[in-house]
Protein 1
Amino acid sequence: MDERKNCTGAARTTAFVAAAGLSAAIISANAGTYALDDGTGSNNLGPSFACEFMWGNIFEVQPDAGVITTISVSFGTLGTPQERPVRVYLYQMKNADDPTDAELIATATGLSGLQRTNIFLDYPIAPRAVYGSFFVSASMQVFGNATVIPARYDASSAPSADRSWFFGADSYLGMPLSDAPFAGNMANNIIKGVFMVRATGVPNTCPADLNWDGVVDDSDFVAFAGSYTVFDCAGTEMPFGCPSDFNADGFVDDGDFVVLASAYDALACP
Ligand SMILES: [Ca+2]
Ligand SMILES: [Ca+2]
Ligand SMILES: [Ca+2]
């Protein structure tokens, strides 16, 4: 399509008032669900220019949900048809607060639907381990004419708005988010809020597979050895999120080495 243009300009906020009779909050009780919203969105955000618009949230990794399997999105205004191509993204953060230098580690595509209903659609991804903090997002082609205002958000969770970021670009594949021509944070939006983007995680049953290739071998040992040398998870040389601290005590030491050694011997996790 020739509707894609370089993304410059300002984002447009469109308020949405829920119609009577719409089902309200759907809040999962699963321990492995990551959410900033309370289940009921209030507003929708989209740019006033054509681009592939991305919106998403930063989450801190929960110990019992360190492998992300699914990204879930509740949509704003989609126009006709409501089924539009969507891409979802999982980024490993490099610091706690800013995804612009994060690493894209999984992505998947699907179709949208169910505009302004607060119902989340699930998009499975190839499961990946994350450490410290991660960024999950969705993107959709928008046209700059308010027919598609896809990023639904929840103003009642405004205190967490600094966790919600949005971007405009032609594509996000093969480039860091810092290269996106347009970027913003919901803490700076006129109506602050958090995006209706969630993630689901399961326990990381093979933490010693540090490079997530399905085996525990010399590559993982080398990564572990570097962290073992740094020792303190707070050390400036330690990879963000301290992946080698398998027992989560703040240090990479012999207590973690025994975990690696046992998996290394088996070339896999027990
Ligand atoms: Ca709400
Ligand atoms: Ca490995
Ligand atoms: Ca440890």
Protein 2
Amino acid sequence: MPSVGVLLDCVNMKPPEHIETERLVLRIPSLADAEAIFNSYAQDSEVTRYLIWRPHRNIEETKSSLADCAVAWEGEVRFPYVITFKENGAVIGMIEIRIDDFKADVGYVLSRPNWGKGLATEALRSLVAWALGQESIYRVWALCDVENLASGRVLEKAGMQREGVLRRQSVHPNISDEPRDCYCYAAAR
Ligand SMILES: CC(C)(COP(=O)(O)OP(=O)(O)OC[C@H]1O[C@@H](n2cnc3c(N)ncnc32)[C@H](O)[C@@H]1OP(=O)(O)O)[C@@H](O)C(=O)NCCC(=O)NCCS
């Protein structure tokens, strides 16, 4: 039986609002980030190719998704962060963790000029370490489209193992309206 303390932790589990890594700061998104996010990646169809959302057509869509982020932090499930450079505060992407009792899943996106520098891996490692450091979280997992090789590699570099293919698991509307096969990756303790 888990102790009362652990049960209370499950109910009130919130990750830190501010996380620093070697090169990055992860922080709670704000409406003031809309312009940077819209201009740097939210309207980029290369970036959204394997995602569940379509490129934003205007900044209002970005603002609306940021408003949802603020609401999410008031709840106990979804915790989105903007990924920023520590040295100048520039917003370069987003990462989020969703907590479901004893497990959590993650998702992330980076602006294209910042691909290939190990930044997504760096951001993800910090969230995986936080999650698996919690007494009540035993598993961190993620899904990625079977063709999203860069993302699969990021998940491996962050310590996850590929567990298998979930067939017809998720619609990635920028590729097709039909559900697509996804790999499931996880780290567990
Ligand atoms: C996926 C994504 C977050 C990766 O970010 P990143 O900061 O470039 O990732 P990293 O630099 O930490 O690592 C990328 C790894 O993938 C590898 N990689 C990149 N493109 C690849 C490809 N087409 N095929 C195989 N490997 C590839 C890189 O070589 C690197 O591995 P290595 O360090 O062993 O060389 C970024 O490309 C992105 O934002 N994509 C769009 C959004 C997205 O797909 N999010 C994930 C949804 S599941």
